[in-house]
Design goal:
alpha+beta, Rieske Iron-sulfur Protein, 2 domains, 25% strand
Protein backbone atom coordinates (compact mmCIF):
# COMPACT_ATOMS: atom_id res chain seq x y z
CA UNK A 1 0.00 0.00 0.00
CA UNK A 2 1.17 3.43 -0.90
CA UNK A 3 1.19 6.09 1.74
CA UNK A 4 -0.35 9.45 0.97
CA UNK A 5 1.47 12.31 2.47
CA UNK A 6 -0.48 15.13 4.07
CA UNK A 7 1.24 18.42 4.23
CA UNK A 8 1.64 19.95 7.64
CA UNK A 9 0.37 23.50 7.96
CA UNK A 10 3.25 25.86 7.74
CA UNK A 11 3.91 29.28 9.10
CA UNK A 12 3.30 30.64 5.60
CA UNK A 13 -0.22 29.10 5.52
CA UNK A 14 -1.01 30.80 8.81
CA UNK A 15 0.21 34.16 7.51
CA UNK A 16 -1.96 33.85 4.37
CA UNK A 17 -5.08 33.10 6.44
CA UNK A 18 -4.34 35.83 8.99
CA UNK A 19 -3.66 38.40 6.26
CA UNK A 20 -6.88 37.47 4.47
CA UNK A 21 -8.92 37.80 7.68
CA UNK A 22 -7.40 41.18 8.55
CA UNK A 23 -8.00 42.35 4.96
CA UNK A 24 -11.67 41.29 5.10
CA UNK A 25 -12.18 43.13 8.40
CA UNK A 26 -10.43 46.18 6.93
CA UNK A 27 -12.65 46.21 3.83
CA UNK A 28 -15.78 45.92 6.04
CA UNK A 29 -14.54 48.74 8.31
CA UNK A 30 -13.96 51.01 5.31
CA UNK A 31 -17.26 50.10 3.60
CA UNK A 32 -19.44 50.57 6.69
CA UNK A 33 -19.38 54.42 6.78
CA UNK A 34 -20.05 54.62 3.05
CA UNK A 35 -23.11 52.40 3.36
CA UNK A 36 -24.31 54.06 6.58
CA UNK A 37 -24.12 57.55 5.08
CA UNK A 38 -26.82 56.60 2.58
CA UNK A 39 -29.42 56.30 5.37
CA UNK A 40 -31.33 59.44 6.39
CA UNK A 41 -30.26 60.83 9.74
CA UNK A 42 -32.49 60.50 12.81
CA UNK A 43 -33.52 64.17 12.71
CA UNK A 44 -34.79 63.81 9.16
CA UNK A 45 -36.73 60.67 9.98
CA UNK A 46 -38.24 62.25 13.11
CA UNK A 47 -39.07 65.48 11.29
CA UNK A 48 -41.48 64.01 8.83
CA UNK A 49 -42.21 60.43 9.65
CA UNK A 50 -45.88 59.73 10.22
CA UNK A 51 -46.86 58.26 13.59
CA UNK A 52 -49.48 55.55 13.94
CA UNK A 53 -51.51 55.52 17.15
CA UNK A 54 -53.51 52.52 18.32
CA UNK A 55 -56.71 53.89 19.86
CA UNK A 56 -57.82 50.59 21.43
CA UNK A 57 -56.18 51.05 24.87
CA UNK A 58 -57.40 54.65 25.29
CA UNK A 59 -60.31 54.59 27.74
CA UNK A 60 -63.33 56.84 27.34
CA UNK A 61 -62.58 60.21 28.91
CA UNK A 62 -58.81 59.66 28.75
CA UNK A 63 -56.26 61.96 27.07
CA UNK A 64 -53.06 60.48 25.66
CA UNK A 65 -49.99 62.62 24.99
CA UNK A 66 -47.48 61.85 22.25
CA UNK A 67 -44.92 63.64 20.12
CA UNK A 68 -44.88 64.11 16.36
CA UNK A 69 -42.27 66.27 14.64
CA UNK A 70 -41.10 67.36 18.08
CA UNK A 71 -44.51 68.79 18.97
CA UNK A 72 -46.88 67.62 21.68
CA UNK A 73 -50.13 66.05 20.48
CA UNK A 74 -53.22 65.29 22.60
CA UNK A 75 -55.49 62.41 21.58
CA UNK A 76 -58.72 62.57 23.56
CA UNK A 77 -61.37 59.84 23.71
CA UNK A 78 -64.45 61.94 24.37
CA UNK A 79 -67.53 60.69 26.17
CA UNK A 80 -71.02 61.04 24.69
CA UNK A 81 -71.71 63.80 27.22
CA UNK A 82 -68.58 65.72 26.19
CA UNK A 83 -69.53 65.43 22.52
CA UNK A 84 -73.07 66.69 23.19
CA UNK A 85 -71.79 69.66 25.22
CA UNK A 86 -69.32 70.56 22.47
CA UNK A 87 -71.96 70.33 19.74
CA UNK A 88 -74.53 72.38 21.71
CA UNK A 89 -72.28 75.45 22.06
CA UNK A 90 -73.42 78.62 20.29
CA UNK A 91 -70.50 78.96 17.87
CA UNK A 92 -71.10 82.72 17.48
CA UNK A 93 -70.30 83.20 21.19
CA UNK A 94 -66.78 81.77 20.83
CA UNK A 95 -63.68 83.98 20.54
CA UNK A 96 -62.47 81.78 17.64
CA UNK A 97 -65.73 80.41 16.15
CA UNK A 98 -65.47 76.85 14.91
CA UNK A 99 -68.08 74.09 15.01
CA UNK A 100 -67.21 70.88 16.82
CA UNK A 101 -67.91 68.90 13.63
CA UNK A 102 -65.12 70.84 11.87
CA UNK A 103 -62.61 69.75 14.53
CA UNK A 104 -63.17 65.97 14.33
CA UNK A 105 -63.34 63.45 11.51
CA UNK A 106 -66.79 62.48 10.25
CA UNK A 107 -68.06 59.34 11.95
CA UNK A 108 -65.39 59.58 14.65
CA UNK A 109 -66.69 62.37 16.89
CA UNK A 110 -65.44 60.54 19.99
CA UNK A 111 -61.80 61.16 18.94
CA UNK A 112 -60.29 64.63 19.17
CA UNK A 113 -56.68 65.14 18.04
CA UNK A 114 -55.07 68.54 18.75
CA UNK A 115 -51.64 70.07 19.25
CA UNK A 116 -50.88 70.18 22.97
CA UNK A 117 -49.62 73.72 23.40
CA UNK A 118 -51.61 76.79 24.41
CA UNK A 119 -51.93 79.24 21.54
CA UNK A 120 -51.08 82.14 23.85
CA UNK A 121 -47.44 81.47 24.80
CA UNK A 122 -46.98 77.76 24.12
CA UNK A 123 -47.53 76.43 27.64
CA UNK A 124 -48.86 72.88 28.08
CA UNK A 125 -52.46 72.98 29.31
CA UNK A 126 -53.77 70.48 31.86
CA UNK A 127 -56.36 68.03 30.52
CA UNK A 128 -59.81 67.41 32.03
CA UNK A 129 -59.57 70.75 33.81
CA UNK A 130 -61.08 74.21 33.72
CA UNK A 131 -64.64 75.45 33.67
CA UNK A 132 -65.49 73.36 30.57
CA UNK A 133 -63.61 70.15 31.56
CA UNK A 134 -61.40 70.49 28.48
CA UNK A 135 -57.98 72.01 29.09
CA UNK A 136 -56.74 74.72 31.44
CA UNK A 137 -53.47 76.55 30.89
CA UNK A 138 -52.16 77.05 34.44
CA UNK A 139 -49.67 79.74 33.42
CA UNK A 140 -52.03 82.44 32.14
CA UNK A 141 -55.52 81.03 32.64
CA UNK A 142 -56.65 80.16 29.13
CA UNK A 143 -59.57 77.72 29.21
CA UNK A 144 -60.38 75.35 26.33
CA UNK A 145 -63.48 73.16 26.04
CA UNK A 146 -63.65 69.44 25.16
CA UNK A 147 -63.34 70.37 21.50
CA UNK A 148 -60.11 72.30 22.10
CA UNK A 149 -61.79 75.65 21.43
CA UNK A 150 -60.75 78.72 23.41
CA UNK A 151 -63.50 79.78 25.81
CA UNK A 152 -61.73 82.15 28.25
CA UNK A 153 -58.35 83.76 28.74
CA UNK A 154 -55.64 85.34 26.65
CA UNK A 155 -55.19 82.57 24.05
CA UNK A 156 -56.15 84.05 20.66
CA UNK A 157 -57.14 80.85 18.86
CA UNK A 158 -58.33 77.29 19.36
CA UNK A 159 -55.88 74.43 19.85
CA UNK A 160 -54.73 73.60 16.29
CA UNK A 161 -55.48 70.26 14.69
CA UNK A 162 -52.53 68.33 13.21
CA UNK A 163 -52.91 66.49 9.91
CA UNK A 164 -54.23 63.02 10.69
CA UNK A 165 -56.39 60.30 9.17
CA UNK A 166 -58.05 57.13 10.34
CA UNK A 167 -56.27 54.01 9.06
CA UNK A 168 -59.16 51.95 10.40
CA UNK A 169 -61.65 52.32 13.27
CA UNK A 170 -59.00 51.67 15.92
CA UNK A 171 -55.91 53.35 14.47
CA UNK A 172 -54.96 56.83 13.32
CA UNK A 173 -51.93 58.08 11.41
CA UNK A 174 -50.65 61.52 12.32
CA UNK A 175 -48.67 63.20 9.56
Amino acid sequence: MAETATAEPTRRDFLFIATGAVGAVGVAAVAWPFIAQMNPDAATVAAGAPVEVDLTPIAEGQIVKLFWRGKLIFVRHRTAEEIKEAEDVNVASLPDPEADSARVKEGHAQWLVVYGNCTHLGCVPLGNAGAYDGWLCPCHGSVFDTSGRIRQGPAPTNLPIPPYAFVDDTKIQIG
